[in-house]
Amino acid sequence: MKMVRNSLAVAAMLVMGVPAATVHAQPKDLSIVTGNTGGTFYPVGVGLAKLLSDAGMQSAADVGGGNSNIIAISQGSADIGFTFSPTAVFAANGEEPFKESYTNLQGIGTLYTNVTHIAVTEDSGVTSVKELKGKSFASQPLSAGSATFFRMILEANELTEDDLEIAVRGGPAQGAQAVRDRRAIGFQATAGYPNGSFSEAFISLPMTLLDIEDSTFKWINDKNPGLVRAEIPAGTYKGLDAPVKSIGASTILIVNEAMPEDDVYQIVKAMIENLDSLKAVHGSVRGTTVESMSKIAGVTMHPGAVRAYKEAGF
After folding, report:
1. Which residue has the higher pLDDT, 102 or 17?
2. What is the mean pLDDT of residues 116-137?
3. How far is CA 67 from CA 31, 124, 206, 235, 251, in A?
4. Domains assigned to the chain
5. Which residue from 25, 23, 41 is spatially nearest to 80, judged by alpha carbons?
């Protein structure tokens, strides 16, 4: 019976003048792995899931991490993943924190730039990364790309996390709570700004963000050019009176290269056509354009995404 129904459907499409080869059912039950709930990946991922669901592709966002999402997408346990462009380079090359190469990943879009935040309380007296030595600090789990970038910053300053007293490992929400509870003098994350966890911490206590010095940036950029110079503007958080020099990494969406071209085409097409609804989700995405989405670093673009961007004129 199924064959009869399919034959009738094809016949009907031909009668209507629609080439059967161009008709493709929308992908369903898409799983999107994002980041921890206190970061930026997660709320933007929830917004993306709603956008795709509203477009007829039932989708759900789940927590994840910039590093662990690479593995999930490569192994096929999730459909769309959030990660950082330099993390994708580490993964392809099999460099730390990855123990093997992951080369079956392709990009479908760039969303926004994440900037490393290293926040400390003003009464800690800490004014530089080197002065974190011996201090109680909240860091992130190894699954998070933020953890990798922070370790690089420490290494450039001849430190490791062992030189700090790590009070808690969790997302920025847990880090902010540790600071408010006086269990840590600071916490870190690489995220879009303004980030809610940092906003709440700066409202609760007098805090500041540490500059990443030019020598530190050069060391990091030489290791991975995907990590670029970035700045957190004055006024982003309460009491932040001057801009803060930092490093930035693009947020990219990745899929497995085996995902059908038509599926990826429909996903990216829906994003292009409904970009305004995604931009309303979080301040970090407000500057995203179709043109900026189409510029992907760190991985090759999936053919389905290429098709959608070309159709949109990019």
Report:
1. 102
2. 97
3. 17, 31, 32, 31, 12
4. 27-111+252-311 (3.40.190.10), 115-249 (3.40.190.10)
5. 41
